[in-house]
Write a structure and sequence with these properties.
This is Mini-circle protein. InterPro entries: DinB/YfiT-like (IPR034660), MST-like (IPR007061). Pfam families: MST. Helix content is 52%, strand content 2%. The chain has a single domain, classed as Four Helix Bundle (Hemerythrin (Met), subunit A) (Up-down Bundle). The chain has a two-stranded parallel sheet. It has 5 helices and 2 strands, in the order βαααααβ. By secondary structure, the protein is mainly alpha-helical. The longest helix is centred in the C-terminal third of the chain and has 27 residues. It starts with a strand and ends with a strand.
Length: 176
């Protein structure tokens, strides 16, 4: 019998608020990613079955850094020491230090998601990003929060699909 991954709960089909829909689906995909990783062995979390060399744990660290880059550094303008912390060299494969555990990376991911939620809750969808730790000139085009949230949503959806494949190749588990 093929193991099944229990799906996360999608936002209600009756939502009409763009804010609630975007933030609801972001949380749905955040939960989906974590559910796909739960139960994987440390070896499978660190192993790559893809020609590009990415690992499931590396993908989780990447998503944590994506949250940090887009919302803290990019939108909020907070100075961040290592906004590209998931890379040893750029461009390159997502990197996880040998001593970083799933719990370490999960905690980092959850911390970034919590910060992201607070930033989004304090802003309006039509607010523009401060930009890259505050270094983008005021007259330069900067994305709006709604654009950033939609970008994050498509990034999560794509990576959740990639994790579907990685998980099935790792141990046969399938699910939403």
């Amino acid at each position: 019998m093929v193991p099944q991954i229990e799906p996360a709960e999608e936002p209600p089909v009756t939502l009409t608020s763009p804010y609630d829909l975007l933030t609801g689906y972001l949380d749905f995909y955040r939960q989906t990613v974590l559910r796909k990783l739960e139960g994987m062995s440390d070896a499978e979390l660190r192993n790559s079955r893809m020609p590009s060399g990415w690992s499931p744990l590396g993908l989780l660290k990447h998503l944590a850094c994506v949250e940090l880059r887009w919302l803290q550094w990019g939108f909020d303008g907070a100075p961040i020491d290592e906004p590209w912390a998931e890379f040893k060299t750029r461009p390159g494969v997502w990197h996880v230090e040998p001593g970083e555990t799933f719990e370490d990376v999960r905690r980092f991911f959850e911390e970034q998601c919590t910060r992201s939620r607070a930033i989004v809750a304090a802003a309006r969808l039509d607010d523009q990003a401060a930009g890259l730790g505050g270094t983008v000139p005021a007259d330069e085009d900067r994305p709006t929060l709604i654009w950033i949230l939609f970008h994050l949503l498509q990034e999560y959806a794509r990576h959740a699909g990639q994790l579907d494949i990685a998980r099935e190749l790792a141990d046969g588990a399938v699910g939403e």
